[in-house]
Known about the structure:
Elements lengths: L1 H11 L2 E2 L2 H23 L3 H5 L15 H6 L3 H20 L4 H21 L6 H14 L9 H7 L8 E2 L1 H19 L14 H5 L17 H16 L3 H10 L6 H9 L1 H19 L5 H9 L5 H11 L14
Antiparallel strand pairs: 1-2
Helix pairs in contact: 2-5, 2-7, 2-15, 5-6, 6-7, 7-9, 7-15, 9-11, 14-15
Amino acid sequence: MSGLWARWVDLLSTREPGTTLALYRVAMGLCILGTVGTVVVHGLVDVIWLPAEHGGYRGAMQPGFLFDWLGVTPITVWSTVVVSMVSGVLLTLGVGGPALGRLVAFVALWSTMGLTDINGHTGGSYDELLTCGLWLLVLADSTRTLSVDCWRRTGGWTDPTPILAFPRYLVVFQLVLAYWSTGAQKVSAYWTPAGDFSALYYILQQPSWQRWDMQWLAWVFPATQLATISTWMFELGSPLLLLAFWFRRTEDRPGRLRALFNRARFRDVFAAFGVGLHVGVFILMNVGPFSAVTLALYVCLFHPDEWQRALDRLRPPAPAEVPATTLG
């Protein structure tokens, strides 16, 4: 038991450069701006977040804790919209040190959650996924690098000082939990052989989900069957990602299963399939910010060193030095 506890403490004490969590912070900030900003741009704030007496379409609201306290009025709703948008900008830029950066994430969490909780008819599970992701940023020192705070402290945009890695691990766990719980709730016959794996075909025929008419899918029905079963198995098998992370962390230990996972690069295959899945969802279906929020979590699948190598490849090469010449 003492050995297990020691390994647990070692895992939670692991430090790494802050590149991954900084990129995750940027992604979540942009998700806030996209989620709340699209409501503002389309002129829907009053319609979906205010009761009927103030121009909304619903006669009764059941807001969460924030607006139970503030009251749902034009002043409180629009003030919260401004706070959410400003905190999204500050989060994206990385304003504030460890303490202030966490406070910005906390304000972003509560203001955005307050808005999305007002009207349960106009949101989705992606709202909870977004706010859970923001809560994990409250635990992280995400402004250490790639931030205005880093530029203020060091005069540059990068700082290699290690930070605690466990918030990144929690993001990966959140991703796995979201997938597995979604897959476990797919209990209708249409996700199984009993319903010919026809779930995605029928979903893509519903006007509330499809981006355009998709009657043509009847000609490629087997492709939708393959997409249905692969999506379901991907979600149910997502806990294997946690095992793959552990095998990567302990790759120096013996074991055929560990060697197989590492040789197959399970994490990379998982990420490639997941990205393709969500790009496909974005192209074919109108599901709000679901794809963007989920893909923001994917940032944390990769170690900071991997992101740093990718960022280094994007930098323009340094100009070649001109050799000095001697004038005779």
